[in-house]
Amino acid sequence: MKSRYEAVIGLEVHAQMTTATKIFCGCSTAFGAPPNSHTCPVCLGLPGALPVLNRKVVEFAIRAGLASRCTIAPRSVFARKNYFYPDLPKGYQISQYELPICIGGHLEIETKEGARKTIGITRIHMEEDAGKLIHPGEGSGYSHVDLNRAGIPLLEIVSEPDMRSADEAVAYLRKLHQTVVYLGICDGNLEEGSFRCDANVSVRLQGAARFGTRAELKNINSFRFVKQAIEYEIERQIDLVECGGTVVQETRLFDSVSGVTRSMRSKEEAHDYRYFPDPDLVPVIVSAEWIDEVRTALPELPEAKIDRFTTALNLSRQDAELLAADRALADYFEACVAVHNNPKGCANWVMGEVLRGLNESGLSVAACPLTPENLGGMVARIDDGTISGKIAKTVFQEMWDSGKSADRIIEEKGLRQVTDSGAIEGIVDEIIAANAEQAAQYRAGKEKVFGFFVGQVMKASKGKANPQAVNDILRHKLAQG
After folding, report:
1. Sheet of 102-110: strands edge to edge?
2. pLDDT greater than 60 at residue 398
3. Are 457 and 426 in contact (CB under 8 A)?
4. Which residue, 99, 61, 25, 106, is CA-closest to 290?
5. What is the distance between the alpha carbons of residues 284 and 56, in angstroms, rounded to a whole number?
6. Are 334 and 340 in contact (CB under 8 A)?
């Protein structure tokens, strides 16, 4: 029965920009300061205070628009969005309405089935954030207001209602998150609320031309919760319609503990906010020269990076996607390759031991104790035969713990690989002589015994013997029997 319906989903994403100061004043945007310490007459909304636009905010908006293939408006206008809430000191929010800075873009996602799908972007506009209410506890009867966040610059990125499942919505959200972080315009920290979204969800019969009545799910700050909230809301609306009820246009909150959405208030329309152009701010004029300047400075974006990793560096698509998923990780990998030109070797260590170490220690790539230069140096020592892959794991851990280079560790700990065939032959002869029974088994056709001999030789050499030389010499000696 439920298969008769399809969901229609659009997302409104708020990305907090990583400018040093707020959008209309010089107050710091740093997170975690004591309440109300990053405030001034402008962001407190005091009478007579006048806003002055932060040029960097406009530049960041242009970056986002270019990366999502939007048209950058040569003239955009700030408007006042009027509503009354304790954390909005002026009684209005400065935003953009009729004339936003970016319009008509799109991002491509990969669906769960592996197909490519284009998600339209209606608009991107600049606005200021509101403050934050802090509730001491249930039954206290009062709340605190922290206005440090008031005036922090936001980009609101509004998609077309092109998504048909929670999985598609999450794929789009992840792609957008990756894009703004790559651009350096948002740190993407979901826990601190610097990347959050509202989801507009409705259902309709398959093939119907008209959209159903939508509900807006407000301020969700986790990919997992976005998926859960949308899936619950789709089920709720279908059940309501099937039982003869009517979906009401409203704003709902997602309760992550119980996994349900709950009604918050009736959904406001644009006229409820009484938008009008802000009389204190002049129109934003963006020249073609400025757009070209920003376009020239754009970083390489994930899709282009993946293509280059697969074509120029001969990595598999899977490896390229994993490395390019995070800009800091991609930069780390490329710095490693710059030291030693073995992309696959460097990629294997970055995707394996480096990521394992970061996950276990709870560190970001930026805080990695092992420099890419040292890792590249170690891969070079593997490739030139100085150390084996097995010894490299010991070297890796020592580099991670001490910060020393591979060369220094190899010399200090005497880890240089034994490649002298004469020395290896001597060890092999001793091992064969001490294990005559196993040698006879091998010569009788029991191939598995060969691994025993390899292990014994490596143990006798303390892991320093060149594995390939050990294999070659062992086979030769055992065949002579």
Report:
1. 71-72, 102-110, 116-128, 153-159, 5-16, 195-205, 215-220, 250-255, 260-266
2. yes
3. no
4. 61
5. 13
6. no
Calpha distance 254→259 (Å, rounded): 7
Residue 420 has pLDDT above 60, yes or no: no
Q: What mean pLDDT, rounded, does the chain reach? A: 91
Cβ-in-10-Å burial (0-12, 13-18, 19+) of 205 comes to: exposed
Nearest to 21 by CA among 151, 110, 210: 151
Sequential DSSP letters for 401-431:
HH---HHHHHHHHT---B--HHHHHHHHHHH
Closest CA to 322 of 314, 333, 313: 333
Spatial separation of the C-alpha atoms in residues 425 and 428, rounded to whole Å: 5
6-52 pLDDT, tens digit per residue, is 999 999 999 999 999 999 999 999 999 999 999 999 999 999 999 99
Amino acid identity of residue 341, one-letter, is N
Residue among 133, 217, 151, 119 nearest 17 (CA): 151
Instruction: Give residue limits of the domains in the chain.
Output: 2-289, 300-413, 421-480
Contacts of 63 (CB under 8 A, 6+ apart): 183, 184, 185, 294, 298
- The dihedral of CA 288, 290, 291, 296: what is its sign? positive
Question: For the chain, what's the residue count?
Answer: 481
| Residues 12/196, Cβ–Cβ less than 8 Å | no
- pLDDT band at residue 321 under the 50/70/90 scheme: very high
**pTM of the predicted structure, to 2 decimals:** 0.85
Quote the pLDDT of residue 477. 67
Cβ-count burial 83-107 (b if 16+ within 10 Å, e if not): eeeebbbbebbbbbbebbbbbebeb
Q: Which CATH class is domain 421-480?
A: mainly alpha
Instruction: Take residue 460 and report the two structure tokens written for it.
Output: 């006798």
Q: What is the DSSP string of 359-385?
A: HHHT--GGG-SS-HHHHHHHHHHHHTT
Q: How many CA atoms lie within 13 A of 165 on its CB side?
A: 10
Q: How far apart, in whole angstroms, are the C-alpha atoms of residue 151 and residue 168?
A: 32
Q: Are residues 261 and 215 in contact, defined by beta-carbon separation less than 8 angstroms?
A: yes
Q: Are 100 and 76 in contact (CB under 8 A)?
A: yes
Q: How far is CA 156 from CA 104, 175, 205, 283, 465, in A?
A: 14, 15, 30, 18, 60
